[in-house]
Amino acid sequence: MGSLFDKNPELRRIYEKGLEVRKKVMGEEYVNKALSEATEFDRELQEMITIFAWGMIWTRDEVMPRKIRSLINIGILAALNRGNELKLHVKGAIRNGCTEEEIKEVLIQVGAYCGLPAAMEAFKIAKEAIREVKEEMSKEGKR
Amino acid sequence: MGSLFDKNPELRRIYEKGLEVRKKVMGEEYVNKALSEATEFDRELQEMITIFAWGMIWTRDEVMPRKIRSLINIGILAALNRGNELKLHVKGAIRNGCTEEEIKEVLIQVGAYCGLPAAMEAFKIAKEAIREVKEEMSKEGKR
Amino acid sequence: MGSLFDKNPELRRIYEKGLEVRKKVMGEEYVNKALSEATEFDRELQEMITIFAWGMIWTRDEVMPRKIRSLINIGILAALNRGNELKLHVKGAIRNGCTEEEIKEVLIQVGAYCGLPAAMEAFKIAKEAIREVKEEMSKEGKR
Amino acid sequence: MGSLFDKNPELRRIYEKGLEVRKKVMGEEYVNKALSEATEFDRELQEMITIFAWGMIWTRDEVMPRKIRSLINIGILAALNRGNELKLHVKGAIRNGCTEEEIKEVLIQVGAYCGLPAAMEAFKIAKEAIREVKEEMSKEGKR
Amino acid sequence: MGSLFDKNPELRRIYEKGLEVRKKVMGEEYVNKALSEATEFDRELQEMITIFAWGMIWTRDEVMPRKIRSLINIGILAALNRGNELKLHVKGAIRNGCTEEEIKEVLIQVGAYCGLPAAMEAFKIAKEAIREVKEEMSKEGKR
Amino acid sequence: MGSLFDKNPELRRIYEKGLEVRKKVMGEEYVNKALSEATEFDRELQEMITIFAWGMIWTRDEVMPRKIRSLINIGILAALNRGNELKLHVKGAIRNGCTEEEIKEVLIQVGAYCGLPAAMEAFKIAKEAIREVKEEMSKEGKR
């Protein structure tokens, strides 16, 4: 069972739609790397993420604009203590047009609702993410 | 040490500002009840919440509108598995002008990022909160 | 947007497959109730759960038998502190043929890895779930 | 396998020591109830708790007085979102000689480090626990 | 108080039994290192783990085979966000005879029940653990 | 909005009091670094932490001595899985006069109440923190 599409070929369309959104938000380079490094072990995970999160949820942007989804995700990931994903989604937030001020506001709110250690950790990660994504976007712009 | 103001009288102004916002978002009846039932044991907690969360964070609404803060809080509280507070903040979201559709979108996102059990629990709580807050707001309107 | 199928009609087949497994594991009565009580607010959640968890994961039973999936889920839900879902999945485990002894072993393991309070809570919930599901199954048998 | 002692009879002495401490801290009535209601399903859990937590840890009171252990446990259980156990251990704290003021201080600290929702929940639970344990202790005193 | 056995010499037998199982599952090299590096500060922790988790739980293999315990532990540790222990227990799972396919199935289930970020993190850790443990086992085989 | 004091100048006195305590507990070098590296993005976070946690809570030392607060915080941070903050607060505990034995006792209690993986992680972090803080304190003493 190497791919979800072996048994569920009808998922292909949602996957393609999701892949497009995922690349726009997470950055084409990151997504291409994640997919090209996928093995028998984690290919189906990559497909599920692309279908379920990106194809079925992040595409619902007529109801909830991606910018707001990004801010909500930053709050959620800081609460869940998932630093790696938090970093990726801070970058995604910037790509989606969130300002640094907005990201800061979410994380200050995290301080009151998740506790100060959660906020300190998240601020450190976000600071690094913002610096990195600016470089990435400036490189992308030059191509 | 019965009140924060005994030692920190300068906090009074921020407390007053916070109290006003807290009542607007959480409902006057709920806040009055929380404060009037406070004893020696939990009065300082009530003061801290009003000062820190409401006076120092929820007042920063020129940067982040309260409606967005409500949506972010719903995501955070669902992630933290704090059902009682989640219920209060779903009600607050409706008072802040969020639509049921927006709340639903946050909770669907919770499904992907916090797992399906977190979403199921949160949807159940939100459904109840929305029904109740509508009744509360209709009563308030009649007065 | 009342139903996932409005925009993604191709998901119907996986939904149907998932619905069948969900009913077998969670009990027909519970699933029918969950679906018939669904409103505009939570219908899409119910559809997502049926498609993603039941249609796409619980159907992979040639790789992982449902009995083992049930035991793993009990461990996960106890760790996540999600009591309501834990109760439903303890019932599901019994329906899937797990013995009380096996469930007990998972929860003892929870004691060592998630801490004793997690285990105490989970044992209490499981005890109740086992009593209830036996009654449910005996009623079902009589029809 | 009905009891841990079937295979590990040497644990009996630590169990007896633990049982004595457990009763002193949690209240004799509560412990007797927990043990008398234990079935084949959860007897070994009760034994493990008594041996591991009470016999091997709460007995180390020359290094760490029980009063301090109680305060630490209140912080931990509030952080873990384990309300039922929190309630029992607030009662235990009072039995161990902690004052209401000390319990309040721990929970205010919880507000800063675990977030305000964790503190609000914990204060509510503690308030109830203190009221109940005072009644229990007054009844016990009368016997 | 340098060792648990100073005050509880009767625990020695369970410790020895646990030590044997621990070495078989976690690898002799890892366990020897953990024990030889233990100081006054953490020796008793190492003893407790060996006695409680390994001597009292992992030895109950007539009720629950070690292979299943490994799979359950992978689910639990992914849910708890304990990456270091997750890595060690993925290695343990392979030593206990679990296949990569089985580990993958647990982690896909983690995606649905703990959320996609938990699954992504766990897949990354597991991939690394599997590569490393294969090398370790091949070295051990050559000796 | 570069600083909390722009809009809330009255918070200055509590900030100053908090800053003094924070430096005594966390070490002057660490606090100076945190403040000097603060940018527009995280200056307000630093101010909030100093005011709320240090100025309003850690100053309440007539009710709860700092040494006990440190021990409680170690328990809380281990429970929350916040390793970076745990490390800083183990160092703070030593600066506040806690002994290694007392820290060890808290972490053994973590083993029973948060599970063994939480304890293993926390012991590793604490061991490193204790070694480092001793060096830091010996350097400070020489100046």
TrEMBL record, chains A, B, C, D, E, F:
Species classification = Archaea, Thermoproteota, Thermoprotei, Sulfolobales, Sulfolobaceae
Which GO terms label this protein's molecular function in UniProt? peroxiredoxin activity
Query: Which species expresses this protein natively?
Result: Saccharolobus caldissimus
The coding gene here is pcaC
Q: Which Pfam families match?
A: CMD
Tell me what this protein is called.
4-carboxymuconolactone decarboxylase
Source organism's superkingdom? Archaea
Q: Which Gene3D superfamilies match?
A: AhpD-like
Q: Where is the Carboxymuconolactone decarboxylase-like domain?
A: 44-128
